Amino acid sequence: MKLPASTEWVLHCATTLAQLEPGTSASTSQLSQYYDLPAPYLAKQLKALVKAGVLTATTGPRGGFRLARPASEITLLQIVEAVDGASSPYECREIRQQGQGALPAEDCRDTCILAVKMEEAHEAWRTSLGGVTLAGVLDTLPPSTPSRTRAKMAKAE
Q1: Do 64 and 58 touch, CB atoms closer than 8 A?
Q2: What is the dihedral of CA 121, 9, 87, 137, to 10 degrees?
Q3: Element (DSSP H or E) covering residue 65
Q4: Model pTM score
Q5: Domain limits at 50?
Q6: What is the pLDDT of residues 21-76, one digit of tens each?
Q7: Measured in whole angstroms, how far is the alpha carbon of residue 44 from the centre of its chain?
Q8: What element of type H or E holds 57?
Q9: Which residues are paired to 66 by β-bridges?
Q10: Where residue 107 sits, what CATH number does that domain have?
């Protein structure tokens, strides 16, 4: 499975926002400068996180984005699904019933075993990401990272 580059963007941006002082916002401009990303496209992705309830957005000169709830309540799965959706990346088209190698209909009464295994893998992936919160990610960062992030984000204003 290959996710779009924007998935990496939103994961990093959410982690960055989680490192800011409570109540502090960061603008699209600040985040795009911080990561050298195209601001218009990043803004679309951040809006998807707002729509999903992961971030809140405020307008005005001091406006921007911040976490909508504590980092301990936001999972990586929620972030990924906000921009990439929840559907499985695998779609079985039942090619086992096509072409010269087509199986008889009676051998295809059960769901294709490959579709079953791919769905099991997708659910394992979702379970894994669902078990990781932004707070858990922050706990693994070097101790100096949050203060460095806050200082660099302040310069990007």
Answers
A1: yes
A2: 50
A3: strand 64-67
A4: 0.89
A5: 5-155
A6: 988 999 999 999 999 999 999 999 999 999 999 999 998 877 899 999 999 999 99
A7: 13
A8: strand 55-58
A9: 56
A10: 1.10.10.10
